[in-house]
Amino acid sequence: MLIDTHCHLDAAEFDADRDAVYAAAMAAGVGRIVVPGVTVNRNFRPKSTIADYPACVEAYGIHPLYVDQSSLEDLPRLRGWLQQAPPVAVGEIGLDFYVAGL
Questions:
Q1: Residue 77's beta-bridge partner residues?
Q2: Range of the structural domain that residue 86 is part of
């Protein structure tokens, strides 16, 4: 079984063809798709967006590129989600060194 460990299937860019992308992944032998949230608000999106796609599982996190959309008050909320419904991974928490000053 193949696992896509990083797919933003919840992103608006997939709104028009999400079903087709998912079907193509399944046809290619992908058995799991990890959908990481990048902000606290987007951490909610994967659950609702991927509910109809049984191979999709979510990861919770705050990506460094989006910390300006977050605050310290978001951390207890994130911690609560991690404790109440542990995801398959913590992410997105990437270290994107191509961004100067990050």
A1: none
A2: 2-90
CA distances from 100 to 15, 61, 71, 91, 97 (A): 31, 21, 21, 21, 7
Give the dihedral of Cα atoms 93, 96, 100, 102; nearest 10 deg. 10
The answer to whether 65 and 93 have CB atoms below 8 angstroms apart is no
Q: For residue 99, is it within any domain?
A: no
Q: Which residues contact 29 (CB under 8 A, 6 or more apart)?
A: 1, 2
pTM as predicted: 0.82
β-strand partners of 33? 4, 56
pLDDT at 43: 67
**What is the rounded distance in angstroms from the CA atom of residue 48 to the CA atom of residue 64?**
23
Block means of pLDDT (10 residues each) for the chain, 102 residues, are 92 93 98 89 69 90 85 88 85 77 69
